[in-house]
Amino acid sequence: MPPILELRGITKRFPGVLANDHIDLTLNQGEIHALLGENGAGKSTLMNVLYGLYHPDEGEILVRGNPIRMTGPRDAIAQGIGMVHQHFMLIPVFTVTENVMLGDESITNGVVLDRKKVAREIRELSTKYGLEVNPDLYIKDLSVGVQQRVEIIKLLYRKADILILDEPTAVLTPQEADDLFQVLRNLKARGNSIIFITHKLREVLELADRITVLRLGKVVGSADPQSATSAELARMMVGRSVILSVDKEPAQPKAVTLAVQDLVVRDERQNIAVNGVSFQVHAGEVLGIAGVQGNGQTELAQALTGLRKVESGQVTILGEDTTHANPRKISELRVAHVPEDRQADGLVLNFPVEDNLVLNEYYRPPFAKGIVMNFDAIQTAAEERVREFDVRTPSIFVNAGNLSGGNQQKVIVAREFSRDIALLIASQPTRGLDVGSIEYIHKRIIEKRDAGVAVLLVSNELDEIMSLSDRVAVMFKGEIIDTVNAAETTKEALGLLMAGVHEPGASPQPQTPNAQAETLDEIA
Amino acid sequence: MFGMVATSVAHKTADFAQRRRWIVGGVIVVVGLLALWFFAIQVPADELSKYRFSGGGDAVQLPVVELPTAATNWILSLLLIGFGVYHLVRGLTNSAVLFGVIAFLLLAIFLTWSIRGASLNLTGLMESTLIRSIPFLLGALSGIMCERSGIINIAIEGMMLTAAFVSVIVGALTGNLWIALVAGVLSGALIAGVHAVFSIQFKVDQIISGTVINIFAVGLTNFLNLRWLTTNQELNNSGVFAKVPIPFLADIPVLGTILFNQIALVYIALILMFAVNFLLYKTRWGLRTRAVGEHPKAADTLGVNVFKIRYVNVILAGMLAALGGAFLTLGSVGRFDKLMTNGRGFIALAAMIFGNWNPFGSFGASLLFGFMDSLQLKLQILTSVIPSEILLMAPYLATMIVLAGVVGRVRPPAAEGIPYEKQ
User: Fold this and answer.
1) ipTM for the assembly
2) For chain A, which has fewer Cβ within 10 Å, the N-terminal or C-terminal residue?
């Protein structure tokens, strides 16, 4: 029996980039095949080729042994191929039913949409596969985990039996991820075949039947999850040995640098996003803010850095009240900010790298004298920073927008870390970055901590929080529901807190520092 | 501790709402007092305001309602003040009710004062309100079709103007109003096609594309009007559609006059309103249109052809706007005057926004603007106190007030104005 899906010699070129270089891949009926690789390794390109969104320059696709030609998603859907995209393809103001039926609508009386019939089918699918969802609710009212179930139901409604999931766990809590894995095993047991794209090693080892590793657009190897180890897989992905855990000494906390008291912040829709939050960050420690995306962390970081209006409460940095201070005032108090949205808030994409490297200091000597810029000084500093922080760019005159995500982030880190700072506020500092860049940025953050900087780390990645933080505050629905010592907690305990489950009596199982280090390699 | 914080937050929010209530309530009371002073106390006690409900030629003559101006406005003003006090003390949560009651009372006071010593045919006012709202409705439907698929349409004005021009000339040449109508509609489709190619194919900024079309339509119609129509007056006379009374229904007093004794275009526009609503919310095409306007990429990954949906919707939108333009000539005066749309396309746009991109809501807004438009005409005849130039501004003032009040409460389609790029 031929494999249900076979890719032969798929090659896809973009201007200046060879995204896929003669990739061969097979998927057997009823298996979960993990596609592992760093960002930019070509995983998503390959899957977009398979889903008909890109046309390959070379190579062929065989479904159930028959070569097929795809001109768009419609052809892929017709072949039983379905894809859950990394960024969900759901329409927030539509109901679950409307989202599921879109493009493949049931019709009565010749023209009228048959919402009832589709809702009934959704209920059937949801019982059959354990994907609990109410078809009449609007997507905007659903949690991310439920939205993902809707995405999977969309595929099953279209009778897809080859399922592609692109980085499906990036937005989930650990518990939601476990639920997802259960659903995927269930799907597999019913004969569906699944391609699972990820860069998280733990997930691959836990879930996959086979592993294929991509690097720089090429298949660099495959592995058997029964015998492979995290270290081996990481080496295959990156092409060199990677130190997966962060080496750090216990923190030496000193005076309070940042004090937040009863902070209340509203979001764009005037809803309360941060609801009476209080905490302190000491010099020489990392306070991690954990939480599922959308629980107020974004607004908290924006309020602290002066990018968002504070409704009530007080923020004190180094003894100065900065509750209503503007960003420049805060920056001049020696506060560095690595913003969550690096392209919108961290860089001016249409400016060259050299200008981006001095955005926080361009108006001060040595970069300016009065209203006159000193371009020589800016160039010298930029060259130096690019060298020191290993920013891979053809030159400092290239626009920041042309760099890869990892290098853009390095530009920001270089700018923010290159001056004397007392407080570092880092939001999602490694989101979307590859293992190598993550390793580098983590090392830099710990260096700053050891140099006596107070660090506030906001991250949705639990692994990142666990490996960098000395203390962890968990945000849920705008409030800090608990603050725990990082060395004395577990991922599971934090996961429960992130889901809003808080049992004051139940203290988490303390772990030895060694056991702690074990979990750290999941950064990859 | 968190409980305490939460209470203080709730307290703060309540504070804010209460302050707002006091301000709004206070303003209502002050306005009520002003109305009392100017429109009741200052009016001589023996003056009368007469409201009529039947025209001179109507078969059934309804009695004329004679009201003492001062006494009526005393009562209405006191009602307004009482309403403001009630809001101050108890607070009304439904802002639509609040807005509606205030608007109604103020209008009634103002109208009663304006017609003191004279009479006003209310049925006639309602009829002309409906007629004058039709171009707004058709323009708003055009905006809805276009913008629901994600393409901003500020070219409604230009489409209307072009269609008004084309339909007059074709009407004069062929002598057939229906052919003239079809020609006008096709000209709208053509202009919309240009907008579609600009904004979908070449990804030109949609506001700029729309503005260019508006300027182009003004320039072209002015030029052709000057070169041809002023010298060949016979070309600028299409004739107008005759009224089509609907049997039996047209004989109902008041309602029949307003609704069932109109030209065919009025019926067509009202049917189109239901049709667009049905299309948007009940059909496959509508679901896909809204999906494309909200999240085109999601639609694309499900095999929906984003470009096709947008092209068709923009061109249909052009046809709807063109109907509104042809209504201004074939439906009312039968001749073209330069710049005769006079900003109606933009008021239609405001009606669309006010109606939250919904056909029925937009019709409500169109009626409001149509009412201001016809009221302004009646008052010009009735009063000499307010200069007619000020009265002429009424529809535009109403637009501004409405938009200022409604902004932030409506939600445009999420992908509006963003050209879709396939990867």
Assistant:
1) 0.86
2) N
